Amino acid sequence: MKIQNLAATPFEEVMSCFLSAFEGYFVTLPQKTEYWKERFLKARVDWELSFGMFDDDQLVGFIIHGVDLHNGVLTAYNTGTGTIPEYRGKRIIEKLYVHAIPAFKNKGVVKCLLEVIVENERARKVYERIGFRVTRTLRSFKGVLDADGGDEYEIENVSYQRVIDLELYDHKFYSWDNLAEAVKIAEEKTETHLLIDGENEPSGYFTIDNDQNILQLDSADRHFSGLLDAISKVYLSIQIKNVPEERTELVEEILSRKFENTINQYEMEMFL
Mean of the pLDDT values across residues 112-130? Predict the structure, then answer.
């Protein structure tokens, strides 16, 4: 078997291996190629720094990496790792990382980052053997907001850049796929709404995509009840993914509204 980057591998071949590797996974993944093209674009995937294990010409395992700044350092984010069933137990992922790390260092990458479902203990232990450590827990929710209320704020539809200019965005509240860099790439398929309080001052915002996933939300005074009421003026059924557990006030407000906690993930990182 041999390892090489995925830059020359047809996307359809990558996806065939990807979907085979995730068959029967903890969550059901979308099957459409276009979804994954958009997803990997948003994740800032670098195919030169994404690697596959090949048995002859067959792709049997892979790590797909997005590369960008994260907390001020150049980071390789694992946006998808897998091995097809008949090749499991051969420590392919560990071998791929052994191959990848020198390539990362050569490109100036300082840190590796990934997310793993909390219940996926086997995968977490593999990553810990490689050198990753858990840094925080991310919680995801879905539910329906009450249509009453929401009159506390005026809502203004704005460009996402307006949020940046008003310094309402704080990167530490968001995981890789919901960082500002990802939102900017997907902006044509999102809406950003600014909350204006009774003194005509910006008091918060939320950004939501076409599938009613809340990508970012924050309240300047941590008044999350008012923020969720304001969202209900525009959308009722929503999903809020990868909320850091330390955002306790937001998590408590979401749970008080009987939202379902759909899945939890560990964010893990490894410095090179």
Answer: 95
Angular region, 147: left φ>0, alpha ψ -120 to 50, beta rest: alpha
Domain boundaries, the chain: 2-131, 140-266
Comparing CA positions, the residue from 222, 49, 229, 61 lying closest to residue 147 is: 229
Question: What's the CATH code, domain 2-131?
Answer: 3.40.630.30
β partners of residue 67: 76
CA-atom Rg of the chain in angstroms:
20
pLDDT score at 257: 95
Rounded distance between C-alpha atoms, residue 130 and residue 195, angstroms: 44
Per-residue pLDDT band for 249 (boundaries 50, 70, 90) equals very high
The answer to whether the beta carbons of residues 137 and 246 sit under 8 Å apart is no
Query: What kind of fold does domain 140-266 have according to CATH?
Result: Aminopeptidase (3.40.630)
Compute CA distances 37 → 30, 34, 114, whole Å.
Answer: 12, 5, 19
Give the count of beta carbons closer than 10 Å to the beta carbon of residue 231.
22
266 touches 115 (CB < 8 A)? yes
124 three-state secondary structure: helix
The whole-angstrom separation of Cα 185 and Cα 162 is: 15
The token pair at 177 is 């796929």
Do residues 145 and 228 lie in contact, with contact meaning Cβ atoms separated by under 8 Å? Answer: yes
CA nearest to 152, candidates 207, 216, 199 = 199
The model scores a pTM over 0.85: yes
Indicate if 140-266 has the same CATH topology as 2-131: yes
**Structure tokens given for 136:** 């925080």
| Least confident piece of the model among 10-19, 28-37, 163-172, 210-219 | 28-37
Give the pLDDT of residue 151: 80
Q: Which residues contact 90 (CB under 8 A, 6 or more apart)?
A: 83
